[in-house]
């Protein structure tokens, strides 16, 4: 299976419309891939809080339309990263979209853990409450977004739902890059799954982005890692490695669930 991660440069010098056209063209160029992955909130930038409301779109908005067409033109599965979604009741969500090679919306995942503590995304956006997996011919994707990477129980839930390839679009700051790299490997090792971690490059809202998108195998080996700038990271991997790893080293079967809490 071939995956291409598009590490998009997101900066205020380029309009959302221009970036949408540029990214759609880049997706069309990936016709040799089976799966193309984009980062989190690449239209606005994950830290451009003041843009979330003005650039929010419904699930059938301009980004979704452009990405559906790009996926069908290229004939690829497309994890189109996330958009600021405005739901019919007005609530904003950080929503990831997955399109099939015929351009149909196969899945939408609303980010469960919002970043910012008592500001930014955490107060501007609603929280998703549903785990999402997507069955491709070669593997089952489990969806998570950026800050979700810090919450291992979410990933265990995805694995329990059948996920073998964990896809994590992000807008991760350069100053915490070591956490990004470490957590992507940790989620791969503990879940014996592939991790496709696709981040933004560049700088927006005064926050330098980490880049360094990566593909990690179920043994925790980094198969490929991008540099800091805009880049297409293409990797061939064998999804059957997941079942092989889980069979040879059956740690997931040794889980002990429902432990009692310490007595006080
Ligand atoms: N967009 C995000 O979720 C940022 C997450 C982050 O900066 C961190 O977890 O650190």
UniProtKB/TrEMBL annotation:
<keyword id="KW-0378">Hydrolase</keyword>
<feature type="domain" description="CN hydrolase">
    <location>
        <begin position="1"/>
        <end position="239"/>
    </location>
</feature>
<dbReference type="InterPro" id="IPR001110">
    <property type="entry name" value="UPF0012_CS"/>
</dbReference>
<dbReference type="InterPro" id="IPR003010">
    <property type="entry name" value="C-N_Hydrolase"/>
</dbReference>
<protein>
    <submittedName>
        <fullName>Hydrolase</fullName>
    </submittedName>
</protein>
<dbReference type="InterPro" id="IPR036526">
    <property type="entry name" value="C-N_Hydrolase_sf"/>
</dbReference>
<dbReference type="Pfam" id="PF00795">
    <property type="entry name" value="CN_hydrolase"/>
</dbReference>
<comment type="similarity">
    <text>Belongs to the carbon-nitrogen hydrolase superfamily. NIT1/NIT2 family.</text>
</comment>
<dbReference type="GO" id="GO:0016787">
    <property type="term" value="F:hydrolase activity"/>
</dbReference>
